[in-house]
């Protein structure tokens, strides 16, 4: 299958995917590796251009089928997006990123506990895909998507993070929230303060994990500040 720009994709969607990619790059949540996507319809999604996300300017994304082989030029781990969209019709956006604190913990086989407000969106915890290999086959991607289940995130050991949400904007914000939770977990462990008694229980976490008050919208605005396409 040959890749290429699809003029049937509204420019507003192309711009939103570019904004998301650049936001992830600016925030230090991705470097040379990573990708993000937005669902277009039941059978297709738009993934960002196959290049470092922070370097994307006007390059259009590529339309990828939910079922079937990846188009030519699309990065191999975009199979993870396919498998998640296939299993979860409510998901509208996915981010595959490399947040540094999350990477550090994952190298030790650790995912952050629920210890602060932003961590509550991941209660009761996030699973770890305990395999350091790149996800370059459909079977591996299906394994990652299966471990994610109905949750918002899955960590890949020494290999980054995947978030999935109803919108791409929310998936981007959840990536930032998760990295903040990982930073706190790392810092508390470094200081010898990671007492289980300080963890937030499921009921308190459920109440705290609100979407009211433009919680996600405000963080999206913060991450996109100064981007001319994020108006």
Automatic annotation (TrEMBL):
Query: What are this entry's molecular-function GO terms?
Result: aldehyde-lyase activity; metal ion binding
| Family annotation (Pfam families) | Aldolase_II
Q: What is this enzyme's EC?
A: 4.1.1.-
Instruction: Tell me where in this chain the Class II aldolase/adducin N-terminal domain is found.
Output: 15-186
Q: Which InterPro entries match?
A: Aldolase_class_II_sugar_metab (IPR050197), Aldolase_II/adducin_N (IPR001303), Aldolase_II/adducin_N_sf (IPR036409)
Q: Which GO terms describe its cellular component?
A: cytosol
> Gene3D superfamilies, from UniProt?
Class II aldolase/adducin N-terminal domain (3.40.225.10)
Keywords associated with the record: Lyase, Metal-binding
Is Kinase tagged as a keyword? no
SMART domains reported in the protein's UniProt record:
Aldolase_II
Q: Does the keyword Coiled coil apply?
A: no
Q: Which GO terms describe its biological process?
A: pentose catabolic process
Classify the source by domain of life.
Answer: Bacteria
Q: Which PANTHER family match?
A: 3-OXO-TETRONATE 4-PHOSPHATE DECARBOXYLASE-RELATED, FUCULOSE PHOSPHATE ALDOLASE
Q: What is this protein called?
A: HCOMODA/2-hydroxy-3-carboxy-muconic semialdehyde decarboxylase
User: Which organism was this protein described from?
Assistant: Castellaniella defragrans
